[in-house]
Design a protein that fits this description.
279 residues; globular; binds hypoxanthine
Length: 279
């Protein structure tokens, strides 16, 4: 368990590395870390320098916090995140979110790599999360379990407007103006680390999932609990396999490869969104 003082201490260490004071947080998922290379006045703080911060153990996650200017905004971007499947507790997975709050960040933009279930989705497309289904969370694996610190957020959290409507609308407008395929859909969050069986994929589709992944939902819970505005976007890195009669198998390499197509599209959308902030 962490306390308020732990988040504050970590934030002070981050602040000792840069005079820039970020107001926007960005989380860059598998294969998407390169987006922060476009930042100006960039300072990178390796996660191991920040007390309490979980280290990234997964390939495609650089493991540093990049602070810099992008599209007129000061941003703190996580190049890589910690996942529940790596053995981290929910408190550890969401520690960076609470540090971002302590840094004074009011809006959080999350990205992830996801498998596409909706038949209209192609590899390389983007999907804005309009909502999510958090199956492990509904069963008790979520960061809001346990004693609640009322100074961090409420005991009972409303989740009907988790993904900020104005931010989503603006992102959709930018994508339309620039001819970038951006869907709106439901993200189905699972713990992983295994990819789903075809029967699980058919179940997720029947339950209303458009894309499936192993991150994001816990961070969104912590961010909404802290009162942050949230927007999240999936990059469709592979098509989820829904039948057993196939030679196909999902793998992490294809997930990372698709990042090459997704990063420029995501960069364009974020640039358009951020250059109009606050929205
Ligand atoms: N399933 C779960 N997580 C993922 C996938 C997938 O197909 N692709 C990228 N992350």
């Amino acid at each position: 368990m962490y306390s308020r003082g732990d988040y504050q201490r970590a934030a002070e260490v981050v602040q000792s590395h840069s005079d820039l004071r970020p107001t926007i947080g960005l989380i860059l998922g598998s294969g998407l870390g390169k987006l922060a290379d476009a930042f100006n006045e960039r300072v990178s703080v390796p996660y191991e320098r920040i007390p309490g911060w979980p280290l990234s153990t997964v390939e495609g996650h650089q493991g540093q916090l990049v602070i810099g200017e992008f599209a007129g905004q000061i941003i703190a971007a996580q190049q890589g995140r910690a996942h529940f499947y790596e053995g981290y507790s929910m408190a550890e997975v969401t520690f960076p979110i609470r540090v971002m709050k302590a840094l004074g960040i009011g809006s959080l933009l999350l990205t992830n790599a996801a498998g596409g279930l909706n038949p209209r989705y192609q590899v390389g497309d983007l999907m804005l999360l309009e909502d999510h289904i958090n199956l492990p969370g509904m069963a008790g694996a979520n960061p809001l379990m346990g004693p609640n610190d009322e100074t961090l957020g409420p005991r009972f959290l409303g989740m009907s407007q988790a993904y900020d409507r104005r931010l989503r609308q603006r992102a959709l407008d930018v994508a339309r103006e620039r001819d970038i395929p951006l869907h709106s859909g439901v993200y189905f969050g699972l713990s992983g680390p295994f990819f789903e069986t075809p029967a699980e994929i058919r179940m997720i589709r029947a339950l209303g999932g458009d894309a499936v992944g192993m991150s994001t939902v816990n961070e969104v819970l912590a961010a909404r609990h802290a009162g942050m505005r949230v927007m999240a976007c999936s990059g469709v890195t592979n098509r989820a396999i829904d039948a057993v009669d196939t030679e196909l198998e999902t793998n992490h390499e294809e997930v990372l490869e698709a990042g090459e197509i997704i990063v420029p599209r995501l960069t364009t959308i974020l640039k358009g969104l951020l250059s109009n902030f606050p929205i």
